[in-house]
Amino acid sequence: MKTFPMGGVHPSENKLSCAKPIEILPLPEVVTIPLAQHIGAPAVAKVAKGDKVLTGQLIAEAASFMSANIHSPVSGTVTGVDLLPNGQGLRQMMITIKREGDEWAEGIDRSETLVRECTLSAQEIIARIKEAGIVGMGGATFPTHVKLSVPPGKKAECLIINGVECEPYLTSDHRTMLEHGEELIVGVTILMKAVGVEKAYIGIENNKPDAIEHLRGIARNYAGVEVVPLKVKYPQGGEKQLIAAVTGRQVPPPPALPIDVGAVVCNASTTYAVYQAVQKGMPLIQRVVTITGKGLREPKNLLTRMGTPVSALIEAAGGLPADAGKVINGGPMMGRAMVNLDSPVTKGCSGITVMSGRDAVRREASQCIKCAKCVAACPMGLEPYFLSKMTQKKNWDELEARMITSCIECGCCSYTCPGQLPLTERFRAAKQALKEGIRP
């Protein structure tokens, strides 16, 4: 069974909602749509207070090559373009729309009819993906049209679809593969055409045997598409770890990218969104979100419009439990704790995890005993204990020399640390400081 060669951990899976079919969450009365739902510069609003909009209409335009378009998830009236708090309480520009029905923009095919044949050229496919505002839906939110635009002098040799979903609790990709498998495979062939490759691999951990069997059955009818079962190990869904597991190739340290070893990687839900955009003219205005937690009355997988308040998903799962201690945007390993449950679902939100007070308590940190468990667990071959010491000393030169920018913030070091040191948080803050040039 294939896996990546270095580091990794085995947290409890807790896939509480893996058998729960996707449900459609009722539309909210008001949505708030952040202009920054991607890693690049925030999109530029193209609407103003008082404007009427239709579902699927462009409301914010990409501000740069690394930016992405944003479309209205509902029809109604724009009531504001203002600074509003996000899930972490930080204020960012958002467009607020009061819903008035659900009237769709022209040119969007909402039927369930499967469209297999794609007659567009590679350039036309990438342009349509760009117009639809599609970004990586596994959490990275890297604009998909940028990933598919292979730089001059580089050549893609294979496409890898990330169906791993190694983060504990989350099951949105799993359910998408099961319930939209045929559309997903068509999406794979579209992506293959866009990057000019004849081989595609769909990597799925073997704790999802139903998805492996289902997609294998479909893939037999599509040339060059292979489903690759993978050993269960976190963080197998990391881009570099997945490439190593599937192809055996190691992506060099930054600034090297997957294309440097001939690979292009796309998330499973992103691939389904590509099918919808290219074959149906559907912009990225909704996604499947897992709402889960041991204390929830009914964990679910909900098809949710962007801009829907997180509180609406919690209510749909039975409400916030009395013993809730923390609500996480994402899963417990890489997600971020929320302080504002009225903040919206965004393109990169694959799940909401509700932790009990007991599970959410962080024990008091003690001293590093140099046991090197964090070194053994790091999938990037770093020395977390040493990097942690350098972050406390603000030794920026040493941090850069020891490749802290290679850290993928997976949380393996913090998970294994017997001293309960907040290693991942320290590295995240240090990387941000280096990125912004914040030095003494």
Question: Notable features of this structure?
Answer:
alpha/beta; 14 helices; 17 strands
Model description:
The relative contact order is 0.15. The protein is globular. Strand 15 and strand 16 form a beta hairpin. Helix content is 28%, strand content 20%. The strands form 4 sheets. The chain has a 6-stranded mixed beta sheet with strand order 1-14-13-17-15-16, sandwiched between helices. The longest helix is centred in the middle third of the chain and has 15 residues. The chain has 14 helices and 17 strands. It has 440 residues and is α/β, with parallel strands linked by helices. The mean pLDDT is 96. Helix 1 packs across helix 4.
Provide a quick synopsis of the model.
The chain is an alpha/beta fold and 440 residues long. It has helices at residues 122-131, 144-148, 172-179, 181-195, 209-219, 239-247, 268-280, 310-316, 357-360, 373-377, 384-393, 396-401, 412-416, 423-435; strands at 22-24, 30-34, 44-45, 52-53, 58-61, 70-71, 76-85, 91-99, 158-162, 200-205, 225-230, 263-267, 286-292, 300-305, 324-329, 336-337, 351-356.
Q: Count of DSSP E strands?
A: 17
Rg value = 21 Å
**3D shape:** globular
Task: State the end-to-end CA separation.
Answer: 48 Å
Uncertain segments: none
Strand content: 15-25%
What is the helical fraction, as a range of percent? Answer: 25-40%
Largest sheet: 6 strands, mixed
User: How are the strands of the biggest sheet laid out side by side?
Assistant: 1-14-13-17-15-16
The total of helices stands at 14
Secondary-structure blueprint:
Blueprint: E1 22-24, E2 30-34, E3 44-45, E4 52-53, E5 58-61, E6 70-71, E7 76-85, E8 91-99, H1 122-131, H2 144-148, E9 158-162, H3 172-179, H4 181-195, E10 200-205, H5 209-219, E11 225-230, H6 239-247, E12 263-267, H7 268-280, E13 286-292, E14 300-305, H8 310-316, E15 324-329, E16 336-337, E17 351-356, H9 357-360, H10 373-377, H11 384-393, H12 396-401, H13 412-416, H14 423-435
Parallel strand pairs: 1-14, 9-10, 9-12, 10-11, 13-17
Antiparallel strand pairs: 2-8, 3-5, 4-7, 5-6, 7-8, 13-14, 15-16, 15-17
